[in-house]
């Protein structure tokens, strides 16, 4: 073989090595019997090569606020029904609701009590001790024993029981303060009785006692008992004034109970 033939043979021997070096590590065939050319394309990895970002790049879907049509609709548990107070029927005041002279005489016997014509005289603690605000009707009656004692009963009607209760409380405050009539300079005054009586919706007896100071020993003392009763939308006030200690507490309570019975 000539020198040129050796160079050609050597070139053929080097060519497969160069082709293999540019391809894969494992030689193969391409179906025609020649060496197959492999392209360095990486196979897909099962494990991602990059850690996904904590914040997704796409805007997350908004959760619907309404209940899906296919799901159950929540129901509210019904609460306790609100009680509506039944309004009171209007009540007209009549003379039959007032104490008679005979009932006063029976409650405080042997003193000659009788009813007299005309309106009752204003009691010691003033007109405010006989009525409250919002009066819709009023009646009164006067009583006397013809000697040293007199008194009266005042009935007032209001829009409803709540208004009557407010008037009742206001009347009691007025009696407790009794600012309308101050005692004489030589006299003093104090409450000697203040108690509840279980009759009507509410009843309270309060008694003022006016007495002379030591500097005026010859002056007379005086008793001024009140009985205030509330029943429904009506308030009754019975008030007496007389010389001395006044009507006995038990007798005055009996009169107060008779007055409350007229309101039932």
Give a verbal description of the structure.
- By secondary structure, this protein is α+β, with helices and mostly antiparallel strands.
- The chain has a domain at 95-261: PknH-like extracellular domain (Protein Transport Mog1p, Chain A).
- The protein has 4 helices and 7 strands; from the N terminus they run ααβββαββββα.
- The chain has helices at 3-21, 101-107, 161-177, 249-261; strands spanning 114-116, 137-144, 149-157, 187-196, 202-212, 222-231, 234-243.
- It has a 7-stranded antiparallel beta sheet, with helices on both faces.
- A hairpin with a 4-residue loop joins strand 2 (137-144) and strand 3 (149-157).
- Helix 2 runs antiparallel to helix 4.
- The longest helix has 19 residues, at 3-21.
- The model is unreliable at 1-58 (pLDDT under 50).
Q: What's the average pLDDT?
A: 79
- Categorize the overall geometry: globular
CATH superfamily of the domain at 95-261: PknH-like extracellular domain
What is the gyration radius calculated from CA atoms?
55 Å
CATH class of the domain at 95-261: Alpha Beta
Strand content bin: 15-25%
Distance between the termini: 152 Å
List keywords for this structure.
single chain; 264 residues; alpha+beta; Protein Transport Mog1p, Chain A; seven-stranded antiparallel beta sheet; 7 strands; 21% helix; 23% strand; globular
């Amino acid at each position: 073989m000539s020198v040129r033939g050796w160079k050609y043979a050597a070139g053929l021997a080097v060519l497969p090595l160069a082709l293999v070096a540019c391809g894969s590590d494992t030689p193969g065939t391409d179906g025609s019997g020649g060496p197959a050319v492999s392209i360095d394309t990486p196979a897909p990895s099962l494990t991602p090569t990059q850690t996904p970002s904590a914040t997704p790049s796409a805007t997350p879907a908004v959760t619907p606020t309404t209940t899906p049509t296919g799901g159950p609709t929540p129901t509210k548990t019904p609460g306790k029904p609100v009680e509506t107070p039944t309004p009171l029927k209007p009540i007209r005041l009549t003379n039959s609701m007032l104490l008679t002279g005979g009932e006063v005489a029976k409650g405080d016997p042997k003193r000659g009590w009788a009813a007299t014509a005309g309106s009752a005289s204003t009691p010691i603690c003033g007109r405010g001790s006989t009525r409250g605000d919002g009066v819709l009707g009023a009646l009164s009656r006067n009583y006397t024993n013809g000697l040293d004692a007199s008194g009266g009963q005042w009935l007032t009607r209001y829009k409803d029981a709540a208004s009557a209760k407010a008037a009742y409380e206001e009347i009691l405050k007025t009696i407790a303060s009794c600012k309308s009539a101050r005692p004489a300079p030589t006299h003093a005054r104090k409450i000697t009785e203040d108690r509840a009586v279980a009759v009507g919706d509410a009843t309270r007896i309060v008694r003022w006692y006016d007495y002379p100071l030591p500097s005026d020993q010859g002056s007379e003392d005086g008793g001024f008992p009140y009985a205030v009763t509330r029943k429904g939308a009506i308030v009754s006030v019975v008030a007496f004034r007389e010389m001395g200690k006044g009507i006995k507490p038990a007798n005055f309570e009996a009169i107060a109970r008779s007055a409350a019975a007229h309101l039932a």
